[in-house]
Target: Carboxypeptidase
Amino acid sequence: MVLRVPRHGRSHSFRPPRYDMKSALALLSLASLVAASQATSNDENTQLRMSVDQIIAETAENVFGDVFRGAEHLLDTVLHAGEKTVNKVEANIQEWSVGNTEFVKQDDIVYERFRHASFPGYQIRVKKPQLCDPNVKQYSGYLDIDDDKHLFFWFFESRANPAKAPLVLWLNGGPGCSSSTGLLFELGPCNIANDGQDTTYNKYSWNTHANMLFLDQPINVGYSYSKNGGVNNSPVAAEDSRKYAPINVGYSYSKNGGVNNSPVAAEDVWSFLELFVNRFPEYSGSLHISGESYGGTYLPNIAHVIHTKNKEIKAHAAQGLLPDNKVKVLHLESVLIGNGLTEPYTQFASVPEYACDGPYPVFDTDGPQCTSLRAKVPTCQRLIKSCYDYNNRLSCVPAALYCWSQMFGSFQQLGLNPYDVRRKCNKAEDGDLCYRQLEWIETFMNDEKVKSELGAVADREFKSCNMKVNQAFMMQGDGMHNAAAIETFMNDEKVKSELGAVADREFKSCNMKVNQAFMMQGDGMHNAAALLPELVEDGVRLLIYAGNADFMCNAIGNLQWLEKLETSFQADFQAAKQVPFVPLSSKSNKPAGFVKTAGGKGQFTAGNITYVQIYDAGHMVPYDQPEAALDMFVRWIMDTPLTVTTSDA
Model:
């Protein structure tokens, strides 16, 4: 998660924002200007936008000044490193062919290169690493876009019957966090260990029954990279900003940057999936897309693009308009979102209920904190509704600034882990992100041999999350995944070499400049749930799951927005009873949570719309309850009932 509750201690830690009257008035002044911008002339609108931008800048400086100054310093460092990276890479490129197979040697790493006539400007570079789980087939490398953006991926074949197993894409959130955190800390074939010097076998990996594909997007986080290491933070309306693709995540990179919204990110992900299944047609069967946290915003956008493109492909095929080397239909079967941010109007309003009356209340329900939180909900919802109605930066940024700061500000004083309120967070012992294993991952992923093995760019530093640019109250994120261990592992030279990562790219799980760029477009305040009804009606199944100890994307809000989703299954879902969820591998027959479901064919399927709440789990359900998470996942992708218990089986 990127959205972090700051703690005091180290000099580079986030400093609590100043919630003074000037800041509050500035936020409300900004909100009041938004409606006026909708009916003005072009000249007047330009002047008004300039005024709004000034208020945004002044408010951000007043409330988040320390954060932005840290971000500016970090950006200068990243830009300098990025220029070194690409200059070095471009000077060391060799190309050749063997038969019909193309190869490219870049930064002393040999990749197979695959290009597709229908995707000019796109290519994938592929390497075969032997890390993490050498007993399964692996591929890693980059999606290259116009020699500018470079998205890193890592694929693991299923441990069981890969020819019949579905392809599952996994994305961590942020925006700006590497999916390697999910791979090495939650649900991948191995878990980070020994301060990032090693990994251990994960028997609960989701590749037990699925071909798993982990993608670092957007660029300049993790191993993904760009020439300038930059992000597009231009003050344009959200509709126009969709011209810019999110980049700079993990080992992914881009020459010119350009990161600020989810819809364009979805276009690049679709292009990547097309190239991947064309190069590896053996994995072109059923497709599921999954993720957590800000993935709740990414995934509906990606699913929408896939679904729309599929319709276009089928229509063109019916008219005989497809080229011989045709684009494939991606057989999207379902979307899985864990503790996601998807429908902010409902989810932000659920914060007082969770904080004061939830399964792990952090405030006295009759105390001043709860009274204050409840009083702030109407203003937060009014601002979010304005974002929904006008769908532009001028209306969405005020909502992001106000709602994150006002609805989550009081939590920062509690000394608790916002991703698992059952736990305290001692930065001296647990690391800046409350999970020290994330730093281990950075150590591993920045090892030169690891970079080379993975095919990662040598000059790209892998970062799990950068606490120097803590945007705790701006935008939902996904960086609280044991940063120390992950970053240690991913920055190991052997790991970089094995994966084919750019050697000079330092791995960081989360790039906070990307996070800031998305925030300054108000991207997270858009209603991603609005993209889902068409998908559901056309047969794409939807699973929302949530750990009940997560404060940031709480289980109450996730159930509430799903109950409001307007589909033909809505009435049945609202009326559905909560049925115990018991993993079939459980010997005690003890419920691990509960299930609500609607649609499907009675009790013989997993349903068209399904919600699973997992007990005793925080934001990262596969980390806290790996057995239950795997059981849920396998039953879902096999479309078998989640309501069946061991006594029924």
